[in-house]
Design a protein that fits this description.
Layout (H helix, E strand, L loop, with lengths): L6 E8 L17 H5 L10 E2 L4 H4 L1 H5 L1 H9 L6 E5 L2 E6 L2 H9 L3 E2 H8 L16 H11 L2 H20 L12 H14 L2 H4 L2 H16 L3 H5 L6 H25 L8 H7 L4 H31 L2 H18 L8 H6 L3 H6 L2 H14 L3 E6 L4 E3 L2 E3 L4 E5 L1 H4 L43 H18 L29 H9 L1 H9 L10 E2 L4 H4 L1 H5 L1 H10 L5 E14 L4 E15 L2 H9 L3 E2 H8 L18 H12 L2 H20 L4 E4 L1 H17 L2 H4 L2 H16 L3 H5 L6 H25 L8 H7 L4 H32 L1 H18 L8 H6 L3 H6 L2 H14 L3 E6 L4 E3 L2 E3 L4 E5 L1 H4 L34 E2 L2 E2 L3 H18 E6 L11 E2 L9 E2 L4 E6 L3
Parallel strand pairs: 2-3, 4-9, 10-11, 12-18
Antiparallel strand pairs: 1-12, 3-4, 5-6, 6-9, 7-8, 11-12, 13-15, 14-24, 15-18, 16-17, 19-20, 21-24, 22-23
Cofactor: heme
Family: Belongs to the cytochrome P450 family.
InterPro entries: CYP450_sterol_14alpha_dmase, Cyt_P450, Cyt_P450_E_grp-IV, Cyt_P450_sf
């Protein structure tokens, strides 16, 4: 049956702006660290924020500017808090500023290394990094006057070539295109001609640096030992940077004729390849974070201050007139390159003021030092050796007692007669001061002047919003950005989502349908919480008395259409109606109606499932309701499970024994990994199941796909967001990895009974086999593994049920194996018949059933691909989506007594609470969509519990080894509803039998 067409609106507008969405997904941090880390103690003269350190310091990493100024504005001149074991003292005022920038023992490098984290460090990939003093020496060598003069023509050539790519007229996003210019010339200045002219490698380099900056998350900084996704991304990006730059260092080292490029200069200086790469990485990082963004802010400031724009333009034209022959017809970039360096540095006073003022306004971040010297006395407080000091540059740069109307752009404040920057000591820190002046100031200012000269003299420009009008509001700097130079939310709205403003002017409000309440509003805003906090979104409206409600979702797809003189973007806007249901009648409809399609519901509204279609593997997409189910049932046949049972138990036993004879494990890591191992074994082949590295790669790719299901990625599949790229990259990596093993098994001399061989014998293509394997593993990754962990936590918190299950499992072993046998436990368990596992564990079945009732409270989705379905006084039309929250039944007190309580007995004869209403239990699916993998999923849980409960004794503990005061809860806003929030519970275990 063909998919119905949604409402489609096609628009066209010039493709002249682009923006990068930074999608930051929340990472669960083990809260037990809050208990492990003792509260900080007050020191005389310094206010102590107190509290649990990890909570107190969290906003220091997420909203640093707000964190510091909240406390400074409350009258605290100095205050302290703890980050892990480190004491951090925040300072303000002139006296503190003098100490901060002058005291000899305060280390800049050590301060940023621990509390900032975005700069690439070679030691993260086991390559010795260059020391701070050595770096500065080499930087000064590379920006020596003669070196800059040699490279100046090449810099102008690079800028000219890139600006010509913009065309003769159009619109650009300065935070993309102008930023890229500065990045280009920074790379040229820091490396060599070969790299600067390789556009692909420049783009890779840029991406690696952005990945590094994004990896400076609170978790990565607060828990550097924790194997978070950000930590892995940091290492991967650093390694990729090192490899790319090392390639060019090696290329230049082998060159028959040396050049005057920076790499050759450092080679001649006697540096190793590693030392050269370290210097380059540091120089480029400064260019990425500071110089590029500052150039963009200068253009914005000049765009709204025409008098200063006019002054700077006249000054630049005078510079050209004074130092070049105006009768020559040479291109602008060649004439600019002929101007002496001294003229650039001395004959542009107005531009120098503009740069100075822009830096004053934008440089309001936090400077950090660590005391590696003697103790320092400040007021009646001692700054001890090892302490960290934080100084917000806004304390001086945005200080109304120093600068009149400090947020106003007024370069004249530095001119003779005003000289506001001379009112106190160190009142201007845009280029560093005291013991840490910016060593790269000379080249940074030169880079800005190169770009601004080419742009201001070669082009005329004005600021416009996405509609081509002068902006009503200018972008504001995001002062909570750790690097302090991004344009923040307003710029995000103005540039990146400008297209959505156009769309919503056409599709402003959804329409009410009969008896279904309409949320109305702008569709993308009304539906945003559906993607970010789905459980809360649905419950909020249901709890307000709405039995049914509807909202609309827009999805924007685009294609490029090229015309002779311009490029247009044609966008197809798909408008979907989503109806949220509750109550028994709706539940019957949802689970029984023939036309409601599961696959289309999840494909469009969920987004976390890997799809081969996205990487142009057309033959790999198996229809969920038909092809996939057939293959899944083939692989989960009773005989196949019986054959593989000994292998599965052997795999589990081997992994469990790696834990040791006693210790503590995190179930959501270690037990979860057991489920992954079994699912991979059941879905693929022996070779992959035994390859630990490839299993780790597989899981990383699945996590990347899952985390890429961001609202932006789902609502704007056309948009080249980072999440979109991550998703496609991870899906492609999944396909490549799995296809390798399909190819391996297809070429095997002797076929096996493994799933891949079974599907090969079934006549499936490699693509179909990979698609099937991906689907099976995804279900095991998301559902079975986490439910297995929740079962163990529930048993640990309910000893009476734990004892019942343990005794039941021991009886199973005794009834079906020789109790006198000396065989290991896993081999005895493997001898238990499959029907016994399925029929002789009624108590464990109740425990699994109750665990799933509590955890499975997410929204299930369908799409109506059939005829219209009457509902209330309305109609669920063909093409509409339907959402049903399982919490409507699983957490319903009219069905389940005290529904939040773990009580497996509620299903027993005489109670049977799950029989009170139609489809009152839907954890394994219901109606037309029962879970075809239920049989194997339950067996996986039983196998692990049998090995663990019979072979070990265990108890729940917190990070201190005590019984937890509180247990983790299910994060119901997680799209898959099974991750944990709250304090981490560990399983403290001791092996009883082999």
């Amino acid at each position: 049956m063909p998919t119905p067409n949604p409402t489609v609106l096609t628009l066209e507008w010039p493709l002249t702006q682009s923006a990068i969405f930074f999608t930051t997904l929340a990472i669960s941090v083990p809260m037990t660290l809050a208990i492990l880390l003792r509260p900080s103690k007050s020191k005389a003269g310094v206010h102590d924020l107190g509290g649990i350190p990890i909570f107190t310091a969290w906003t220091f990493f997420t909203k640093r500017y707000d964190f510091l100024w909240k406390h400074f504005n409350s009258g605290k001149k100095y205050f302290q808090f703890r980050v892990l074991q480190h004491r951090v003292i925040a300072l303000s005022g002139e006296e503190a500023r003098k100490i901060f920038f002058v005291e000899q023992g305060l280390s800049l490098n050590e301060g940023y290394r621990i509390l900032m984290g975005a700069a690439p460090r070679l030691e993260d990939i086991n390559v010795r990094d260059i020391q701070e003093g050595d770096f500065v020496k080499r930087l000064l060598l590379l920006i020596h006057k003669d070196q800059v003069l040699d490279v100046l023509p090449a810099l102008f050539e690079n800028v000219n070539r890139r600006t010509k790519d913009w065309g003769n007229e159009g619109r650009i996003n300065p935070f993309k295109e102008v930023y890229d210019l500065v990045f280009q010339i920074t790379v040229r200045m820091a490396t060599c001609q070969e790299l600067a002219e390789n556009k692909d490698d420049i783009e890779r380099l840029t991406q690696h640096y952005w990945d590094l900056e994004k990896s400076a998350t609170p978790v990565a900084l607060l828990l550097p030992w924790f194997p978070s996704q950000a930590k892995k991304a940091q290492r991967n990006s650093t390694r990729a940077l090192f490899t790319l730059l090392h390639k060019y260092v090696d290329l230049r080292r082998k060159a028959p004729v040396p050049s005057s490029d920076s790499i050759d200069t450092l080679i001649a200086y006697g540096d190793t390849n590693e030392a050269i790469v370290g210097v380059i990485m540091g120089i480029i990082f400064a260019g990425v974070i500071n110089t590029g963004a500052t150039s963009c802010w200068i253009l914005l400031n000049l765009g709204v201050n025409p008098e200063w724009k006019s002054k700077v333009m006249e000054e630049l034209k005078t510079l050209i007139t004074n130092h070049t022959n105006t009768l020559f017809k040479e291109p602008l970039h060649k004439r600019l390159a002929a101007i002496p360096l001294s003229a650039w540095e001395e004959e542009l006073p107005a531009l120098d003021l503009v740069i100075r003022e822009t830096l004053r306004i934008t440089t309001s971040g936090t400077a950090i030092r660590r005391n590696l010297g003697k103790d320092i006395l400040l007021a009646d407080t001692t700054l001890r050796r090892g302490d960290f000091l934080a100084y917000s540059l806004a304390d001086v740069h945005l200080n109304a007692d120093i600068y009149t109307d400090p947020t106003k752009f007024a370069p004249g404040r530095f001119t003779k007669g005003k000289e506001e920057d001379q009112k106190e000591t160190y009142t201007y820190i845009g280029w560093g001061v005291g013991r840490h002046p910016c060593a790269g100031m000379r080249i940074a200012k030169m880079e800005m002047k190169v770009v601004l000269a080419m742009f201001l003299v070669g082009f005329e420009y004005e600021l416009v919003d996405s509609s081509g009008n002068f902006p009503k509001e200018l972008p504001l700097q995001d002062r909570n950005d750790i690097q302090q130079l991004s344009s923040g939310t307003i710029s995000f709205v103005a540039i990146a989502v400008g297209v959505l403003v156009m769309l919503t002017s056409h599709l402003l409000r959804s329409q009410s349908k009969g008896g279904i309440h309409d949320l109305a509003g702008i569709p993308i805003l009304a539906a945003w919480d559906f993607y970010t906090k789905r459980y809360d979104f649905l419950r909020k409206h249901f709890d307000s008395g709405k039995k049914y409600f509807q909202f609309h979702i827009l999805q924007v797809f685009n294609m490029l259409v090229f015309f002779p003189r311009t490029t247009q973007l044609t966008a197809s806007v798909f408008k979907y109606r989503v109806v949220a249901l509750s109550g028994e009648d709706a539940r019957k409809l949802f689970f029984s109606e023939q036309g409601l399609d599961l696959e289309d519901g999840y494909r469009i509204l969920q987004g976390g499932i890997p799809s081969l279609e996205e990487i142009d593997v057309k033959d790999g997409e198996v229809k969920l309701d038909t092809d996939f189910m057939k293959r899944l049932l083939l692989l989960l046949h009773k005989d196949r499970i019986s054959n593989v049972l000994p292998v599965l138990l052997d795999d589990i036993d081997r992994k469990i024994k790696c834990w040791g004879k006693e210790g503590m494990i995190d179930p959501f890591k270690d037990v979860y990994d057991l489920a992954v191992q079994m699912t991979v074994r059941m879905a693929t082949c022996q070779e992959l199941a035994k390859n630990k590295d490839d299993i780790n790669h597989l899981m990383r790719h699945y996590r990347d796909v899952d985390e890429s299901a961001t609202p932006v990625n789902v609502l704007l599949p056309c948009f080249p967001s980072q999440a979109r790229k991550t998703r496609e990259k991870a899906t492609r990596a999944l396909f490549t990895l799995l296809q390798k093993y399909v190819d391996l098994r297809r070429k095997a001399a002797v076929p096996s009974s493994d799933p891949i061989d079974t599907l090969i014998a079934h006549g499936d293509t490699d693509e179909l086999i990979v698609g099937t394997s991906m689907g099976i593993i995804f279900a095991g990754v998301i559902n079975t593994g986490r439910n297995m962990c929740w079962v163990l936590l529930n048993l640990g918190a309910n000893p009476e049920w734990k004892l019942k299950v343990a005794n039941e499992l021991r009886a199973l072993v005794a009834n079906h194996t020789n109790t006198l046998s000396q065989e290991p436990l896993h081999k005895r368990l493997a001898a238990v018949p499959l029907n016994a596992w399925e029929e002789e564990l009624p108590i464990l079945d109740l425990v699994i059933r109750e665990t799933l009732r509590i955890t499975m409270c997410f929204a299930v989705l369908r799409r109506n691909l059939g005829k219209g379905i009457p509902l209330a006084a309305s109609l669920i039309k063909r093409g509409d989506f339907v959402a049903y929250s399982l919490a409507d039944v699983h957490m319903n007190p009219n069905i389940y007594t005290n529904p939040g309580k773990f009580d497996p007995g509620r299903f027993m004869k005489g109670k049977e609470e799950d029989k009170k209403a139609s489809f009152a239990y839907a954890a394994w699916g219901a109606g037309r969509h029962p879970c075809p993998g239920m049989r194997f999923a339950k067996l996986e849980i039983k196998f692990v519990l049998a090995l663990f409960l019979v072979g070990y004794e265990f108890e729940l503990v917190d990070g201190n080894g005590n019984f937890p005061k509180e247990f983790p809860a299910v994060d119901r806003n997680d799209l898959h509803q099974l991750s944990a929030v709250g304090d981490t519970c560990y399983l403290k275990f001791k092996r009883l039998i082999e």
